[in-house]
Write a structure and sequence with these properties.
With 365 residues, the chain is an alpha/beta fold. Helix content is 27%, strand content 29%.
Length: 365
């Protein structure tokens, strides 16, 4: 088992192309070809996290937040970023960050974990992404259609929302004339032939396209495979920012605050007042002020997130309640999320959850 195996699995769930432009997710320290001794999962990677990994014989740290956001011009132990990176390099500990790409997925994402903790139902992405989907169209002999669709589905094509193995087919006639050097499977060179064919259409992510096309080439019986790809403008309901859902039953303001505090294991909540009961809940792990107007437009009664500035709380305007629960607090269960993702896939090596509380913010209660 190698570090590359863990990274490949994580990026199947949260492809790296889904990270935001400002982000720096990916393998930040180390090499993918190193044999794995163990994985330590954390929200942040700081010096204490690296020391913990060393003590636990884990040579890979999978963290939500990248320790490096911008270029480092010198290594002289001048700050915690430099000290953390140098300590990891000296002890052959790799650091992998899975940040906004994990924020931006519906299944197994940061916001779905918050929604799960709050018991929300009928959840959906608050602001879906566009331009991530591709339609693949191909043509094949009727007798080979099922095998080709199976190969496409196996490699990630045909997933739409909560449904899998989605495709559209219709029948028609394909023609071809084999030239010199071709390898026709029937008929003569230079004669036009007609074949009963099935047209297959599937949707997939841009990040899956090369893998799916490779599978198509292997499964298809023709020497030259005809296919077309189209970038779609459809909203992708599986990727995007934030999440919105509903409580199973309507709650008063105070009852919801108590539910939030208990569900997210909070010490304190900063919130704006609200004069109505609460049913529809929007969430965004980490700094979420940028989605406030979207939460309003979606009809949310409350928006659970973090890092609002003082004057930004006024923007609630009593149309919804802003609940700022703290950055670390909003994302701390991402540790459990990543642990479960890795333990479900890999059972032959140690996956550990950090025991270090990396939250730099403390509360005097």
């Amino acid at each position: 088992m190698f570090i590359s195996d863990v990274i490949s699995h994580l990026e199947e769930i949260a492809p790296s192309n889904l990270q935001e432009n400002y982000d720096n997710s990916g393998l930040l320290v180390g090499e993918i070809g190193i044999e794995l001794t163990g994985v330590l999962v954390s929200l942040d990677c700081i010096e204490a996290t690296v020391h913990e990994a060393i003590a636990q014989n884990c040579n890979l740290i999978v963290a939500h937040h990248p320790i490096i956001f911008s270029g480092i011009k010198r290594f002289n132990n001048a700050n915690y970023v430099q000290r953390t990176v140098q300590l990891a390099i000296k002890n052959d500990v790799a650091i992998y960050a899975i940040h906004t790409n994990l924020d931006n997925i519906y299944n197994h994402g940061v916001n779905s974990k918050i929604a799960e903790r709050l018991g929300l139902i009928n959840t959906r992405i608050l602001v879906p992404r566009t331009g991530e989907l591709v339609k693949l169209v191909t043509y094949c002999p009727v007798d080979d259609a099922e095998a080709i669709k199976t190969a496409l589905f196996k490699n990630g094509a045909g997933n739409i929302g909560r449904y899998s193995e989605c495709s559209f087919s219709n029948l028609g006639n394909g023609t071809f004339k084999a030239g010199l050097g071709a390898n026709p499977f029937k008929g003569e060179i230079g004669i036009r032939h007609t074949e009963n064919e099935e047209k297959i259409e599937v949707m997939l992510y841009k990040s899956q396209l090369n893998k799916v096309l490779d599978a198509l080439q292997v499964a298809h019986p023709y020497e030259e495979v005809a296919y077309e790809t189209y970038t779609l403008l459809n909203d992708d309901q599986n990727t995007g920012s934030g999440m919105i859902g509903e409580l199973r039953q309507e709650l008063s303001k105070n009852d919801f605050l108590a539910h939030l505090k208990s569900s997210m294991n909070l010490e304190v909540i900063k919130y704006t007042n609200l004069s109505k009961s609460i049913k529809k809940v929007a969430v965004c792990g980490g700094a979420g002020q940028f989605l406030l107007s979207n939460a309003k437009t979606a009809g949310a009664d409350v928006y659970v997130t973090s890092d609002f500035k003082y004057h930004e709380f006024f923007d609630a305007e009593n149309s919804l309640m802003i609940c700022d629960i703290g950055h670390y607090e909003s994302e701390k269960f991402t540790i459990d999320l990543l642990y479960d993702i890795l333990r479900e896939k890999f059972t032959t090596f140690a996956v550990l959850k950090t025991a270090v509380n990396t939250n730099p913010v403390k509360y005097f209660i």
